[in-house]
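Revision sheet: structure tokens.
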Amino acid sequence: MSDINVAVRYAQALYQVTAEDDLTKISQLLDQVSTSFLEPEIQNFLLHPQTTLSMKHKLVRSLDLGTPLEPFLLLVFEKNRAVLLEFISREFTKILNQKRNMTVAYIRSAVQLDEETVEEIQQRLAALTRKKIDVETTIDPRIWGGLSIEVDGKIIDLSLVNSFKQLKQTLLFN
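Predicted:
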């Protein structure tokens, strides 16, 4: 079974045992934990062959995460799936967003977008997808200008770099 499939199964299991009122809190905590576990010092500790399971359990218990996240993380460590925590967190967020009819749009632009522009894009994407849209923007000067939007696995690339690539393809093959 591929790592992503394993991560999906773990995320689904965590979703099923989490009370409806706690879903947002658990999602945020899981994201924080998985992000902190990516820190080189923590990752070295967790993946070191001399780090025992009881040492990992002690680390998890010291975080005082409560139910259901603490027992879940203990199980993840017992099954040697700690390297999948980042993927599990992403999949858990996807499941949560799916159940709430939400999605995230990732917008890359060469310059900072003003709030009005972001809101307009958000409204148009909401109408297009019929979902509530959360927007994450990043500045990427490598696209030279325009935008690149990723939502629900689809990419709308309106960047200058992409336009030039398409023009080059047209000129070369026509």
